[in-house]
C-alpha cells in the first residue's frame, strides 16, 4: 500500500500543451488524408462504370459477330454475359443503357452514370466509317444519331483512344 501512495503522490504525465500538440498533429494528418481518400473513391467509382461499359461492349460485339447487328434486347446480351447490369429505362438508374441508333444497326451507344456523378459512354460503329469512341461528360450524354466519330460538345468529350477526362 505504501508504494501505491508514493506513486499516486508523484505528478507524472503529460501537460495540457503536450496533449494539444498531439491533437493538432492528428488533425493536420486527417485534413490531408480525407480529400485524398475522397478523390480515390471518385476515381474508383468512375473506373467501375467504365469497366461495366467495356464489358457490355464486348457482349454487344459478340452479338454483332453472331447476328450481324447490335441489339438493345437485355436477354440477348445476358445470353453472352449473364452478369451484365443493364438499364432499360434510360433514366438515371443503375446499369448500362443501350441504344441502337435508327440510322443503322451497325452502331450502338452504351451510356452509364458513375456513382460519383460523372457520365460515360461508348459509341461503337461497325460500318466502314466507324470505330469505337469513348465519351465522358459532366452532364447526361446524348447518344449520337449519325455514324462516324461523334462531335464534342461543351459537356461531353469523345476520344477514339480511351475515356477522356470529364470536362
Descriptive account of the structure:
The chain is an alpha+beta fold and 167 residues long. The chain has one domain. 40% of the residues lie in helices and 19% in strands. The protein contains 3 helices and 6 strands. The chain has helices at residues 2-9, 16-67, 74-80, and strands at residues 86-87, 96-99, 107-113, 119-125, 131-137, 156-159. It has a 6-stranded mixed β-sheet. Helix 2 (16-67) packs across helix 3 (74-80). The radius of gyration is 27 Å and the shape is elongated. The chain starts with a helix and ends in an 8-residue tail after the last strand.
Spans of at least 5 consecutive residues whose pLDDT stays below 50 are: none
Largest sheet: 6 strands, mixed
- Give the tally of β-strands: 6
> From the alpha-carbon coordinates, what is the Rg to the nearest angstrom?
27 Å
Summed up, the helix count is 3
Protein structure class: alpha+beta
Percentage of residues in strands:
15-25%
- Globally, the shape reads elongated
Mean pLDDT: 85
**N-to-C SSE string, H for helix and E for strand:** HHHEEEEEE
Q: How many structural domains in the coordinates?
A: 1
Strand order in the sheet with the most strands: 1-2-3-4-5-6
- State the helicity in percent bands: 40-55%
State the distance separating the first and last CA atoms: 73 Å
Protein traits:
single chain; 167 residues; alpha+beta; six-stranded mixed beta sheet; 3 helices; 19% strand; elongated
Blueprint (SSEs and pairs):
Blueprint lengths: L1 H8 L6 H52 L6 H7 L5 E2 L8 E4 L7 E7 L5 E7 L5 E7 L18 E4 L8
Parallel strand pairs: 1-2
Antiparallel strand pairs: 2-3, 3-4, 4-5, 5-6
Amino acid at each position: 500500500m505504501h508504494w501505491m501512495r508514493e506513486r499516486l503522490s508523484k505528478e507524472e504525465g503529460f501537460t495540457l500543451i503536450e496533449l494539444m500538440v498531439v491533437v493538432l498533429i492528428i488533425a493536420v494528418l486527417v485534413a490531408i488524408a480525407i480529400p485524398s481518400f475522397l478523390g480515390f473513391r471518385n476515381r474508383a467509382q468512375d473506373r467501375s462504370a467504365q469497366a461495366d461499359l467495356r464489358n457490355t461492349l464486348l457482349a454487344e460485339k459478340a452479338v454483332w459477330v453472331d447476328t450481324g447487328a447490335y441489339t438493345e434486347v437485355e436477354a440477348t446480351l445476358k445470353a453472352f454475359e449473364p452478369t451484365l447490369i443493364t438499364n432499360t429505362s434510360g433514366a438515371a438508374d443503375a446499369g448500362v443503357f443501350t441504344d441502337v441508333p435508327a440510322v443503322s444497326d451497325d452502331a450502338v451507344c452504351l451510356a452509364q452514370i458513375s456513382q460519383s456523378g460523372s457520365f460515360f459512354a461508348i459509341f461503337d460503329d461497325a460500318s466502314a466509317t466507324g470505330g469505337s469512341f469513348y465519351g465522358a461528360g459532366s452532364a447526361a450524354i446524348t447518344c449520337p444519331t449519325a455514324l462516324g466519330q461523334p462531335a464534342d460538345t461543351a459537356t461531353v468529350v469523345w476520344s477514339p483512344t480511351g475515356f477522356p477526362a470529364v470536362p
